[in-house]
Amino acid sequence: MSQPSVLPSVDAIEAERFRQFIMGVTDYAIYMLSPQGVVVTWNAGAQRFKGYHPDEIIGQHFSMFYTDEDKARGRPAYALEVARSAGKFEDEGWRVRKDGSRFWASVVIDPIVDPQGELLGFAKITRDITERHAAAEELERAREALFQSQKLEALGKLTGGIAHDFNNLLNVIMNGLELLRMSRDPAIVAKSIDTMTRAGQRGAALTRQLLSFARQQPLQQEPHDIGRVIRSFEAVLRRALPDQMRLHLQLQQDLPPAMIDPTQFEAGLLNLVVNARDAMDDGGNVLLDVSTISLGEHEVERLPAGSYVRVMVRDDGAGMTAATMARAVEPFFTTKEVGKGTGLGLSQVYGMAQQCQGTLTLESRVGEGSTVSLYFPALPQQEPRVTAGGGAGAERVLLVDDQPEVLETAISLFTHLGYEVLSADHGAQALETLERHPDIAILFSDVVMPGMSGVELATAARALRPGLKVVLASGYVESTLREQVPEIGSFELIAKPYRLSDLIRTLKAL
After folding, report:
1. Most Cβ neighbours (<10 Å): which of 64, 243, 345, 389?
2. What is the DSSP string of 405-443?
3. 4 located within any domain
């Protein structure tokens, strides 16, 4: 009587099919390692891009795939230890084929344990992603090249304004030298030297700023007060706009720090201001507003809920259609005439914001202008600011002057003295700022300005805020001013040009 045949179990059949499937995969190297890292199985994918036949590799230690540099650093043993202790090891790096050539590998190692938790070995999956890695490196090189191109393009647009600034500084120095040659009066000599020194320092500061802006360097993110970065770059931003356009700054006090690369941030901000300029043919206003904002989940695309520093650039230009907005951040997309734009500016700014873990949003309507908003994750405040006098919390001052150079100098002086500074370049904007910021303690304004004069501004401001402290600055003789404008006697006066000591004395008198 014949013995009945023994049929394989269903589990055994499925296990064999699974083994054959794994062994036949060609896009991935899938193989098993012993607990010590010795290769015990080898599939078709591993043979295809590593070059070893199973007979050559089974029984060998998997460290032979690593570069000499990684082996010297103990990388293979580290990989197994992480997989054993953490439950998985993932990595990317160079690996070596049988012929000695290198490929960029994506690696996953998982520990295999029995029901009692005893380590049986490791499952290792490797994929050759050399082409993807090369493409990513090429994209990064292209991105850096585009960034440098944009900086050069922006600097080219600023050349006329920079030349104007330097001509003014050179004129001050040349005239001062002439006075030194002609005069022996110690007061004139001292004043000429002081004036030339200030001009030279301003020229040096402008040169340092341009060199910092134009230098080539990798992305270096560090915590920065974005308001302070903008203040130091304000003169360049103003020079990017023609005389018939005005830049208005609204910078929130006590901004939390944010992780940015200041050089790339400045380049991106300048691109936004230049774009706003190009959108307004016949003049207009560009508003640069920086504030802290709390976002809910999904309130802004791609951003988690949390606190952010928002940098908003708004113009009064022609606006964009929905179709244009949909493509606005695409590289090389532009609506400008040939030779007037590369289509890289907004794309670069968008990429910069994303690298800083933030994003860029667009709002626009045809005929109503455009608003570009950059969001950067806010970092925790380190410690409260302290005023020059040592008290917690600085007094807020509003500076008003229609001359950008004079306004910039005043901002620097007041900031040095420990004040929180807001600025405006004409009377109407100053009144709007006073209404929005009821905590402004001091109004410091030039007397002679186009449109609303400083005296008219001060009178309107006092009507709006009776307790407001007011200082008016003028180059005219005080007695003449009081004679011609009697109402000026209601306000504190300071004569131009004023020194830091003059400013301190006047502010103390308040």
Report:
1. 345
2. HHHHHHHHHHHHTT-EEEEESSHHHHHHHHHH-TTEEEE
3. no
With residue 470 as reference, give the H or E element that holds it.
Answer: strand 469-474
Give the single-character DSSP code of 385.
Answer: -
Task: Indicate if 373 and 441 belong to the same structural domain.
Answer: no
List, as own/partner pairs, every contact residues 268-271 make where C-beta atoms lie below 8 angstroms and the sequence separation is at least 24, other chains included.
268/348, 268/349, 268/352, 268/353, 268/374, 269/230, 269/233, 269/237, 269/311, 269/313, 270/154, 270/233, 270/236, 270/237, 270/240, 271/150, 271/154, 271/345, 271/346, 271/348, 271/349
Q: Is residue 114 part of a domain?
A: yes
Give dist(CA 437, CA 440) in Å, integer. 6
Residues 334, 200: one domain?
A: yes
Q: Which domain holds residue 201?
A: 139-377
356 and 448: one domain?
no
What distance in Å separates the CA atoms of residue 395 and residue 393, rounded to the nearest whole number? 7
**Residue at token pair 């000429």:** 192
> Is 326:333 a contact under the CB 8 Å cutoff?
no
Q: What is the DSSP letter of 330?
A: S
The 3-state DSSP class for residue 378 equals: strand
- 443 in the same domain as 313: no
Q: Where are the alpha helices (DSSP H) in 1-72?
A: 10-24, 44-50, 54-57, 68-72
Q: In terms of Cα–Cα distance, which of 26, 94, 106 is closest to 65?
A: 94
Task: Single out the residue in 128, 153, 178 at which a domain terminates.
Answer: 128
pLDDT for 387 equals 37
Provide the edge-to-edge strand list for the sheet that holds 370-377. Answer: 245-251, 284-295, 306-315, 370-377, 359-364
Paired strand residues for 122: 33, 111
In a domain, 385, yes or no: no
Q: Which residues of the chain have pLDDT under 50?
A: 1-2, 4-7, 212, 214-218, 331-333, 336-344, 383-393, 477, 479-480
The predicted pLDDT at position 314 comes to 93
At 491 the three-state DSSP class reads coil
188 and 97 assigned to the same domain:
no
SS3 string of 79-112?
HHHHHHHHCCEEEEEEEECCCCCEEEEEEEEEEE
| Contact (Cβ atoms closer than 8 angstroms) between residue 362 and residue 374 | no
Number of folded domains that form the chain? 3
| Token representation of residue 246 | 């005005």
Three-state secondary structure string covering 150-164: HHHHHHHHHHHHHHH
pLDDT at 332: 43
Are residues 477 and 373 part of one domain? no
The closest of 225, 226, 229, 247 to 237, measured between CA atoms, is 247
Looking at the fold, whether 333 and 453 belong to one and the same domain comes out as no
Inter-residue long-range contacts of 203-206, CB under 8 Å, 24+ positions, other chains counted: 203/166, 203/169, 206/162, 206/165, 206/166, 206/235
The CATH number for 449's domain is 3.40.50.2300
For residue 51, the model assigns a pLDDT of 83
Q: Is residue 280 part of a domain?
A: yes
Question: Residue for token digits 């600023």?
Answer: 158
